[in-house]
Amino acid sequence: MEYLKKYEEINLKDFCYIYPNGGCAEILVRILKDKYNGVDFIGIDDREEQSSFKNNVEAIKESQKYVLLMGGDVYEECKERCKSAKVNYIDGREYVAFVLAQEILKLSAGGGAEFRLLEDGKILHILENPWIRHYYFFYDLFAYYCPKNALEELRECVVDYCKATQREIEKCGYSFRLENGIFFDFAPHILEIYSNLLQDIKVGWYFGSMEYYNKNKAQIPKGNILIAPWVIADYFINYKVVLKLSGGLPLLNPQKRKLVGLGHSLAEAFALAPKSIKQKNINQYAFYYFFPFSYYCSMDRESSKAFLSIFNQVGLEVGLCECGSPRLDYKNLEKISYKTLVEQYLFIPRLMKAEELIEAIRFLLNKGKKVMFRPHPALKNYIEYMGSDNPYKALEEFRGHSNFSFDLSEKISTQLLLQSIVISDNSSVTYSTPFSVCKPIIIYANPKKEFDLRVKNFGISFVNAKLHRVALNLEEFKQQALKLEEDLKNNGEEIIRDLKEYKKEQIYHLENSAKYLAKFLEDLLKAF
């Protein structure tokens, strides 16, 4: 490590300061606590006078302890304050990258990851390590903010870890030669793509956990299986053509392959548009998110425009595969009787906190409406990782109300969506639901750094007027909620008809996307 070796002499003792506190810093402190057991991390928060930098600067100087600068967009401002005050400070983001690199190199020296070869080598199961899990959460957030030199040196250490693991696996007779075939991230709708492939094509399958594999193994057709932590899985995928279900993965495998991104969400093309952060940071994240891919799949004409705008602005040569949406086609396999009457309001927030939704829920209940709340599955891993309290505790006050309920089913049903007016924020349901049930949803989101619908990065808006009704505050939500219900009651058939026509006009290869994408992947393999 050339760039990060400047931190070799840094050793945190007794206590240090975290500036600013909260937000991004929570992930970094979580990682440091596993390295420095017994060190206190004192938060500096300029939002509160008592814990502000100004109020504590003399104590910081007197202590001669380090201030770890953890900011994203506010990093430079915090650095200038520390510099002017002549306190000891370091780039906390880089320092955590250094800590991770050190710990991961130790794992490499010990032979890398634990693994199992099952079913005569058909299944390679690479087990998760706590430091690799830390790397996942670090990379997921700090691909926006961490200096590129630090990110790259950390990535190289992870590659070394994977190489050490590979050497141990090869001792068991397993081969990592590049296979002339197509590798898939498993999901039920991907089986539709597989079913349209020529039968003689070699295939492989990726699962993020043994639990997910065991749940779905009865559906899995022929092919080798890789079960591994998502953040290192790329290194062990040794097929010429790879279809990935999400962007943002660190590129670890040095072999020449064609990676095609299908995306984890119908909203993928628009997800970066409403982030209210500095342009250089959003550009850096967009670059890392799409850089690994040769092609990215586009659902419709609006998605194509959005992707091209992003790729052009950040200087990426990523081709478009205008295939439509196999996920949407899969959802629409079941016969749907579109409904205009509303039985309940269904909240599926991803970003809005329960405390911010209380008054909206109370308003609907006071109007005699039924309300259902569905916890977003994206929060589950983060809550477990951080050891956080139940984020929905504030909603317990409604549990005894006859018109309020939680939907805790594993998978949201189409029938429930048909019966509901859906309220969400930056969840994928903002796009999947209107296209699936041909009914607009309400995006209720107070403007925040992570999601501000007034912002249009890359010249893109997250909002589609055909699909969305927008509320940026409680009063707007009250108006939009009742108006949408009234519109569906009076003009529901027309709304449904318009959205069905919009789908036909806008979405590529509707009902035939899996067939189109299968042919696209076959052609890539033939041309390899």
CATH topology tier name of the largest domain: Rossmann fold
Structural class assignment: alpha/beta
Which residues sit in consecutive blocks of at least 5 with pLDDT less than 50?
none
Strand order of the largest sheet: 5-6-9-8-7-10-11-12-13
Coiled coil: 467-505
Keywords: Coiled coil
What brief labels describe this structure?
528 residues, alpha/beta, Rossmann fold, nine-stranded mixed β-sheet, six-stranded parallel β-sheet, 42% helix, TagF_C
How is the topology of this model organized?
Blueprint: E1 15-19, H1 24-35, E2 40-43, H2 53-63, E3 67-69, H3 75-85, E4 89-91, H4 92-109, E5 115-118, E6 123-126, H5 130-142, H6 148-170, E7 179-185, H7 190-195, E8 202-207, H8 210-216, E9 224-227, H9 230-233, E10 239-244, E11 258-261, H10 279-290, E12 295-297, H11 301-314, E13 319-321, H12 326-331, E14 344-348, H13 354-366, E15 371-373, H14 378-386, E16 404-406, H15 414-419, E17 420-424, H16 429-437, E18 441-444, E19 468-471, H17 474-506, H18 513-526
Helix pairs in contact: 1-4, 1-5, 4-5, 4-6, 10-11
Summarize the structure.
By secondary structure, the protein is α/β, with parallel strands linked by helices. Helix content is 42%, strand content 15%. The chain has three domains: 5-93, Rossmann fold (3-Layer(aba) Sandwich); 179-325 and 509-527, Rossmann fold (3-Layer(aba) Sandwich); 344-506, CDP-glycerol glycerophosphotransferase, C-terminal domain (Rossmann fold), CATH 3.40.50.12580.
